[in-house]
Design a protein that fits this description.
- The termini are far apart.
- The protein has helices at 5-8, 44-47, 53-93, 96-109.
- It has 4 helices and no strands.
- The mean pLDDT is 79.
């Protein structure tokens, strides 16, 4: 008796080449791999384009900050200290105490005492 086309079509049973059953389950043809068949898939970056972005951003930002900190922080600290000193000195020079001190210093510096006009 000859097997029916349904039996030859395959399914979930194992291959039986003795009785002419050459097709296996779905995707298993039971033969050599065929040439010229192209399969396409989508890359992981296209499936989840923002996967790991937050984690990478935090650690990449820290790594870059750490690498540049010694180039940026000392000049800014020196500039801040210099500016703070200049502001305090300017406020002192424009105060009443500084004017009195300057007048006393000028009087001591001139021979014969204070200059009268």
């Amino acid at each position: 008796m000859r097997p029916s086309s349904r039996l030859l079509s395959g399914g979930s049973e194992p291959l039986d080449t003795k009785h002419g059953k050459f097709l296996g389950g779905w995707g298993n043809l039971g033969s050599q791999t065929q040439k010229g068949i192209t399969t396409y898939s989508i890359s992981a970056n296209r499936q989840a384009p923002l996967a790991g972005t937050l984690h990478a951003a935090v650690f990449n930002t820290w790594r870059r900050f750490k690498a540049q900190a010694l180039y940026v922080i000392p000049p800014f600290a020196i500039a801040y200290a210099t500016m703070n000193w200049a502001i305090e000195k300017n406020e002192y020079y424009n105060s009443k105490e500084a004017r009195i001190h300057d007048a006393e210093t000028a009087a001591e510096a001139t021979p014969g005492g204070p200059v009268r006009g």
